[in-house]
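Researcher: Re-running this chain for the archive, since the previous output was lost when a drive failed. Same request as before.
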Amino acid sequence: MKKHKIISLISIIAIMCITLGFSAFANDSETTNTANNSEAVVLNDPTEGRCGENVGWTFDKTEKNLIISGSGDMYSYEFDNQPWQEYEKEIRIVTISDGVTSIGDFAFYQCEDLESIVIGKDLNKIGEKSLYAPDLATIEINENNTEFSSKNGVLYDKNKTTILACPATINANKAFLDTVVSVGPYAFYKNKVTTEVKLPDSISEIGRGAFENCSILKGVEFGKSLSAISEYAFYGCKKLTDIKNSDNIKTIESYAFAYCTHLEFIIIPNNTKKMGESVFECCYNLNTVVIGSGITNIPNSTFFGCESLKDIDLGPNVNTIAPLAFAFCTSLKNVVIPNSVKIINEYAFTNCSELNSVKLSENIETIGKLAFENCNNLKSVDI
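Model: Regenerated structure tokens:
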């Protein structure tokens, strides 16, 4: 009997030990899993990540500072796929640490409240529209950087000869130091405080998209040295009405003034020898155009969609009117094609719905198919 009691007691103790053992194991397992889960959270922390092969980003929520660190180049992005999108409305400062050598395209494009960008000593490349932010107030560069410099919040090349990026909240005229000779691509992109800009005589070049979509820019005065206006230079400047001192311009590239919807009157100077396509496309209020003696070709879609255009002086030396050059100029009523013109290409005047009469050149050799398509009011063609 006693033997049975002893065996039962031993059994109970054994069961208790086994139970406690499993419980302890379970607790250890839970502790281990918790530690592992904690580590996983750190590894997948949404406030940090990779933005280059050897470059990472961290968002400091307290300081509202997006820090880019590591070595080498950043990735480039489209305008809306940056990895810090979740914080784009919180970011106030961007810090590019030493070691990072490039800023990718559109890097901070959606950072609506970004105020300051601080750039380290090793940066040597800046991507397209990467520094644009609507409330950006200042760009600062490490003084030991060999490629770039800054002054009064504006980014320049090292010798301050080219304006590279002027924050949207700084008046463009303040960026023109005595040393500046050129305006870089997208330098004043979407500037929102400049109404008039006067380019110094030292400026010889305006880069691609330099003043693109400057929302309140009304007037621009060119300096004596300016000879070329690059593509998209004033694209989408919807308030622009006044262009002065353009006499020395030799080249106007594609889309340079497209969608300048308040522009009403244009004179192409005699010194201008070349225009790209769609230079004045969809300038909806443009009503009068005078083309100088230097132009021999009116390129594709030059005045496409200029729905208020009524008066055209094609100049004495134009010999070719390219496809869609005057398409959808729905207010155009009378056109005189000068004797210099030999070729009118297809669709050149398509959908000029109010066109009533055309006087053709005596030397015309070719009229392309559907050159006057849907000109339903056309009653007179004088050859």
